[in-house]
Amino acid sequence: KQEVAVRTTVGPVVVVAGPGTGKTRVLTHRVADLILNGGIAPRQILAVTFTNRSAGEMQERIRTLLPENMNLKGLTVGTFHRVALGLLRQYRPEEMKVVIDQVESRSILKEAIADFKHTMPVVKVAEEISRAKVAGFKPEDIGEVALRDLYTAYQGQLQEYGVGDFDDILLDFLDLLEQDAAVLADLRARFTHLLVDEFQDVNAVQYRLVKTVAGDGNGLFVIGDPDQAIYGFRGASPAYFQSLMDDFPAAQKVVLETTYRTTRQIIQAAGEVITKNEAPERRPFVAARGDGVSLRLLSTPGETAEGIAVVREISRMIGGVDMLQAHGEVEGPGDREVRGERSFNDFAVLFRTGRQAEALEACFQEEGLPYQVIGQKGFLGDAVVQQAVTFFRYVTAPDDTVRFLNALALPTFNPGRKALAEIRKQVLVEGIGPDGVGELSEALLLEGERYRTLASDHTPEALMQEWGEAVAENPDFEHLVRVSAGADSLEQLLDTILLGMEADYERAGERKAPEAVTLMTLHASKGLEFPVVFICGVEDGLIPYQAADTDLAEERRLFYVG
Predict the structure, then answer these.
(1) What b/e sequence results for 447-478 when a residue is b if at least 16 CB atoms lie within 10 Å of its CB, and e otherwise?
(2) What pTM did the predictor assign?
(3) Which of 179, 421, 424, 465 sits in a 20 to 30 Å window from 503, CA-based?
(4) Distance between CA atoms of residues 532 and 365, nearest Å
(5) pLDDT category, 330, cuts 50, 70, 90?
(6) What 3-state class would DSSP assign to 156?
(7) Percent of the chain whose predicted confidence (pLDDT) is above 70
(8) Is the peptide bond before 19 cis (omega within 30 degrees of 0)?
(9) Alpha-carbon distance 501 to 505, whole Å?
(10) pLDDT, tens digit (0-9, with 9 covering 90-100), for 237-285
C-alpha cells in the first residue's frame, strides 16, 4: 500500500494514513521517486506541513534518499505560513507588511476597540477575529454587527501601522493568487507537484490555497488521518478530505492499514475510543508488531501523587527493575524493558493542559530526573516575557515604526502618556523616523544599540540572561531563557515565537543532560513515537477537557493520538 501511494502518478492522490503506518516515509519517498524516476526537477516540487520541526525533518529525510551529490536547489519544503511569506516577498516585495506576533496584535486590537461599547474581553475579541480570518471571512462578510465593527476597526489600525498579523499572511497570499492571474499561472508552472502533509489539519483558507495552487489536481498529493484532526479550535476540519474527493472526482484514494509503530493491545484500546466517532469509512488496523503487554492504569489520589507515581515508575525502569517486572508481567524474550535497558530518551509524559505540566515538572525536579518540555507556549502570556519579546523585536528592527512604538511604551522606557501620544503622532502622522523624535526616546535608542552590539557575539540565551538581571525571579521568564538556549540566533528565536506551533517549542528542564524524559502536550505529541508513554490526567474534566465549547469528538481524537 505504501508503494501504491508513492508510485501512483496521476493525481490527486489522497492517502489516509493512520498512526504508525509510515506517513512520513511515504511522503518523503514520493518526493524522491518524483525526482529519481519521474524526471521532476526539485524546483518543481512544493511540500507543505504544519510545524518547522516536521518541515526540517522532512527535508533531511528526502536528502538521505537521494544521491549525495544531487543538487536540491529550489526544492521548497515548509509550513503554509513560511512558504506564503517567502512567495509574497518574491512576487510583491513592495507590498510586504511587517508581520506582528500575538502580543503585538492584541496591543493594537486594544487601541482599535478602545472607544467601542462591548462586553467581550480583548482576548475573546482576538479569538473571534482569528476564527473569522481562518474561515476566510473579511469584515464585510461578518453578519454579527458588533464583531464586524470591531474587526473593521482592528484591520484599519493594522493598515495605519502598515503591519499584518499571523492570519493575514495566508489571506494576503490567497488574495494575490485569486486576483493576479499572471502570478497564479507562474506559480502553477513553477510548482507542478504539490504535496500536503497532515491534511486533516487544514482550515478553510489553507484548503482554498491548496485547491488554487493545485489547478487541475494532477500533481496534487495529500496525506493525513481524519481520526487525528485535533485543531478544530483553529478552524481545521477532517471534512476537507471529503471536500477534496468531491472537488476532484478523479482523485485516487489509498488507505494505509498496517501500523508498524505499536502493538495489537494499544491499537485495540485506541480503536475502542475512536469508533465512538462517526466516520464515512474506518477500517481496523493490522499491528505488524503483533502482541505486547496490556495497557496499565495507575490510579492516584491527586495531581502531585500522579507526578510522583510517574517519576518513580521511570526511575524503576531506568534502574533495571522496570514497571513490568515489578508487577509480575513480562514481554517476549529480548525486549529491552525486560532487561532493564531503558534510557531517559525512551520516555514521554503526555498531558492535556499547561497547568498539569507545572505539577509534573515539580516532581521531576524534586527527584532530580532530567527532562525537556515540548509544546508549552503558556509562558508567552506572562507580562515580563511579553516585555522582553517586545524589546528584542525592536532590537532586530529598530527602524520599524510599530516595533519602536511598542518598545517605547514599555515601563522601562515610557516617557509618559502625553509624551508617548505626541511621539506616536510624529511617527505615524508626520512620518518622522525613530531617530528624529527627540530626547524622550534616547534611553530606548541607547539600550537598543547596546543590545545590537551584544547580539553580534552573544547567544540568544546570554542576551535573555543579560536582560533578566533587572527582572525579579519569574518562572515564566526562566522558561523563555531555556527556550532561547535552543535558538541559533535572536532572529531565529523571535521567528519561532511568531511562526512556531506547539511542537516547535522545546526547552530543557533545570538540569541539562544529553538524555532526558520528554514532557509534552497531547497536541504536540502527534506523529512522534516513544517506547514508553504515560498519559496523565485521564479523568473527567481533563480528558475529555471540560469547557463550554468542548467538542467531544475532537477530545476523543486527541486521546486517540496519545
Answers:
(1) bbeebeeebeeebbbebbeebbeebeebeebb
(2) 0.85
(3) 465
(4) 20
(5) very low
(6) helix
(7) 94
(8) no
(9) 7
(10) 989 999 999 999 999 999 999 999 889 999 999 999 999 998 767 777 8
Report the candidate in 141, 96, 146, 144 with the shortest Cα–Cα distance to residue 119: 146
Across the chain, what does the average pLDDT equal? 88
Q: Quick check: helix, strand or coil at residue 351?
A: strand
- pLDDT of residue 434 exceeding 50, the answer is yes
Radius of gyration in angstroms for the set of CA atoms belonging to the chain, rounded to a whole number: 25
Which cell goes with 195?
A: 504535496
Q: With 60 as the cut, is the pLDDT of residue 308 above it?
A: yes
C-alpha 258/C-alpha 278 separation (Å) is: 21
According to DSSP, residue 296 is labeled -
β pairing state of 506-508 and 163-164: unpaired
State the Cα torsion 398-403-406-411 to the nearest 10°.
Answer: -40
Strand ranges, E, within 366-482 = 371-374
**Residue 535, SS3?**
strand
Whole-number pLDDT of residue 70: 87
- Distance separating alpha carbons of residues 201 and 127, to the nearest angstrom: 18
Cell of 457: 557575539
pLDDT of residue 505: 67
Amino acid, single-letter form, for residue 416: G
**pLDDT given for residue 323 in this prediction:** 45
Among the listed residues 439, 442, 488, 481, the one whose alpha carbon sits nearest the alpha carbon of residue 461 = 481
